[in-house]
Please model this.
Amino acid sequence: MTVSSKGTCRIDFVSIGKQVDVPPGATLLEGAQQGGLIMVSACGGLGKCGQCRVTVLKGRVSALTESESAILSQTSIDAGERLACVTRVQEDIKVDISSDALISGPRLQLGGDAPYMKPAPLVTAHQIQMQAPTLQDSRSDLLRVKEALTDVAGQSPSSADLAVIRQLSPLARENQWHLTAYLRNNELVGLAPPESSPLGVAIDLGTTKIAASLLDLSGGKELAVSGALNPQIAYGEDLISRLSHARQNPENGQTLAMLVRETIDRLIGDLITRTKTDRDRIADLCIVGNTAMTHLLLGLPVAQLTVSPYVAATSDAMDIRARDLNLTVAPGANVHFLPGIGGFVGADHVAMILASRLHRGDRLAVGIDIGTNTEIVLFHPEHRMLTAASCASGPAFEGGHIRNGMRAASGAIMSVKFTEKGLSLSTIDHADPVGICGSGIIDALAELHRWKVINPSGRLDKDNPRVRTRDKGPEILLAAADQSGRGREIVLTQNDINEVQLAKGAIKAGLETLLAATGTSIEAVREVVVAGAFGSLLDLKSVLAIGMFPHFPNASYRQVGNAAIEGAKMALISKNARRDAWNIAVHSTHLELSTYPEFNRLYALAMQFPNLDKNAATVWK
Amino acid sequence: MTVSSKGTCRIDFVSIGKQVDVPPGATLLEGAQQGGLIMVSACGGLGKCGQCRVTVLKGRVSALTESESAILSQTSIDAGERLACVTRVQEDIKVDISSDALISGPRLQLGGDAPYMKPAPLVTAHQIQMQAPTLQDSRSDLLRVKEALTDVAGQSPSSADLAVIRQLSPLARENQWHLTAYLRNNELVGLAPPESSPLGVAIDLGTTKIAASLLDLSGGKELAVSGALNPQIAYGEDLISRLSHARQNPENGQTLAMLVRETIDRLIGDLITRTKTDRDRIADLCIVGNTAMTHLLLGLPVAQLTVSPYVAATSDAMDIRARDLNLTVAPGANVHFLPGIGGFVGADHVAMILASRLHRGDRLAVGIDIGTNTEIVLFHPEHRMLTAASCASGPAFEGGHIRNGMRAASGAIMSVKFTEKGLSLSTIDHADPVGICGSGIIDALAELHRWKVINPSGRLDKDNPRVRTRDKGPEILLAAADQSGRGREIVLTQNDINEVQLAKGAIKAGLETLLAATGTSIEAVREVVVAGAFGSLLDLKSVLAIGMFPHFPNASYRQVGNAAIEGAKMALISKNARRDAWNIAVHSTHLELSTYPEFNRLYALAMQFPNLDKNAATVWK
Model:
């Protein structure tokens, strides 16, 4: 039994390249969390939802539980599949974690100099000892709180939330007039028993997944993480489908809002249960999302967002009572929404900029958040201005509009390598292939390009032995029916290639337009920050090989994973970070790409595949 | 046909002593409203609820409508009874208005020098012309509102209510980017089509009745009034019953809150319908009530209010979002709650002081708000301090704890005069007597005292021929079974007399304690202000005859009716009035009467009936 001399077991998450040391008996989920890997866990770690499947490749773990036997098929169990939340480590092990179970990529490495990880929270806690009332002194309970706060905090709150006043009278008597009071600026927003330090929740509200993190507001420590799929997916995988659904009638909008609010509240419950704390201690929250997600969560009208010129109802920073979003936390707690930039470029992009500190360096930098909408930003250090744009890169990277496309779930082809005689695939969970996801598609195109199976315009060479022709045109066979997990062939068609060209062309043309419209030469760019949970799973070599970005000859690349939630955490625990986010928004200009006269020409050119030698010269740092 | 030469008809509300001139064809309800008489009208003037019954004593009016035939009995119709909302004036008439249909007494005569009838509202309206968005300018809609407001108001709101942002995008497009914006301090609280002046609603939330008034916020003009019974009556006529019900479990509290919120929202609907305006224009509200009523409306805990030392959760001035009280008005509109003083002395007493300007004179003054709880206040002009107390005068004045007691409704004996050989009664609506209400009971006691049927201790003289003795003791027969509207005798018992002694003694002892505890001589009091809807119906001569108040030899009396709603209106339209209300609360001390050592002795003495000669000397001004 290999337990290290320090009495810990090492878990090697092989597909992620992350290793953590945990005490024997820790669950794999705890290990993943320690490593900053946010796993889907809809049931809150009770072994019931089956979302946190992992494959134990090597090493001994606790015996299969009854709930696992009930949830996992015998085939899965034979392949070493387990539920991370109930499987306990007994020695050093190797684990393969399913991408579908993973809410975000590895945590952003911020380094020790991150300015906002030093907590300066807006909500502060104060221990108060109230005077008990007598017949001679029958002043109200609230007045006693104000008096006691003046004693300890040197200030009396100018207002108190009604829901907090509702708590006050019984709580003060239960705790012998000794309470913890939470103040937000000059307002009383929560009350709790003595010595209850305030907690906060940061949420990245993604189109596909929602990640939540519980933090100690005073110390800034992360106490737990959780995640779930965005339930609005039932109404469309892409934003436009959901916005169209919401604009049809108010009830649809309410349904979409209600679904996502319920999921967020459930995630909060999960965080609370796992840390054995109380919802009333959550005194502040911060949610970041793109413009459309924020509008749907808040129940804002979306009609004007779906037609040109695509205008947000608001992109201001906002504080909304958490209860107005049906979130059960401290009664007066607010949800802080960071400001957006304009159009579809929302608060999540501001949070990404905040966390990556793109805007605080002295180098001309480009930021790219890859997704169905890809947000891009250019930072000019001389005048410290940011210019941001949104590229309609479309759903191809999520498997949409692709014949056998799928999201990054079990059985998805995630990587493709051509060999002399055929090809080698690797799939998520090592399952038999059932489709191809974004990273697999990009890999496949890079290989087709490298092996000259396509020409620079993306046309398949019908004379190439890898290409076969069917009724609908030329295509590549990735997996034969008998190799496939679904009993049918998996192919990549000429049409699929064209879809990816549209997507990658949109991003490249967007970046070129951003440079041209701001008079920036491509040589001036010194740093490229690639963000997004999807962005962190990509093989950047393939991305550059297919020409998804222009060739930046002097730039170094930084892959930062889901930076949006890191920005949300910073804003949660630091009012300085909120101020900086406001600064980012104020110093940002939104560029509507279609207004640039050259955009269409650049777009047409950007769909081409680049010169291979040129890309080979890319400095890979 | 007697229509005056000016082309108007005079309506003489005989029981109220109020005369108004209206155009021929006006309804009696419109006439009553013009005269400041707030009538119950649950159906909004549709002739359906039957609550606005009046008796036409003299003069010609419009023919009986179908709805009246359906609602009124033939006996009522023969007696001249009509519904005020559908009966139209055709010449000068005399009308008797049922006290039960009346929400408040005659409007307080404030005189031309009332300081807060000059509007200085917190909510201001601004006409804005927003810039329409283009592809080159896709800033959010809210940013456009802020920009336009900076143009016209010189300031940009620092925040905007979420519910207002929800209105913005469609409303701006429907109105070609031209809107009315309502600002409250620095917050955007409402939006409306162009040229929509803001409205406000003032509400007196009484234990028995709720009165509402719609005002033009900019001009201060009263546009409509409405009223309804407090539906919480189903859970107890007195406050203590309702508080006890609410403290049993949270659901009870929610039911009581919900009932009163629904009624207020219905009254707002009534005001809106009658003035043909829109709920979205109601941009501010002010509600006054006693401590218990406010706690029940707001859903605050009440357990601590029902046990010694009777502490309010809060008595601070507050602004609550109207939507948090389920009121449908402009989405960001607030309800302002005036501050209370302490214990059961609540915001309605502060509003009464504000409206009567008791605290702004240079005379030592006493204010008395008569009800189930009677609030009393003493104003010392030298140090401009107010001392307030609450007397548990009990339900006797409302007919409670009285053998044949009843509220002031149709058939209630409202006045009693003894004659040499018997007695003469007058009843509300001139109906056959069915019971006796507060003013009748006080009248009866004054007569019993004047005719020496009782001794100074309140004992009935069994040898007096007016007194008869039954199994339960001595009693006075007010109406024989065959004279009664309910076929049974109506009597006043020794026990009834004792109940009234307890009630009037509590008020007198409260006033004497207030004087003694503040070192004030009875001769120093120069003014006595008697307030409350009930207070304005009383015959003050009888009140003084039974010794409900101490004998103030140097005081003049002022009967001001329902001053609380007048105070609420002032606070609605003037931030200066809110500041003054805050001053009243800050300069007020709450005195818990039971803490004064002499109180019990004073109480025992105060139950006695006073020397008749002494009272006869009272200066009646």
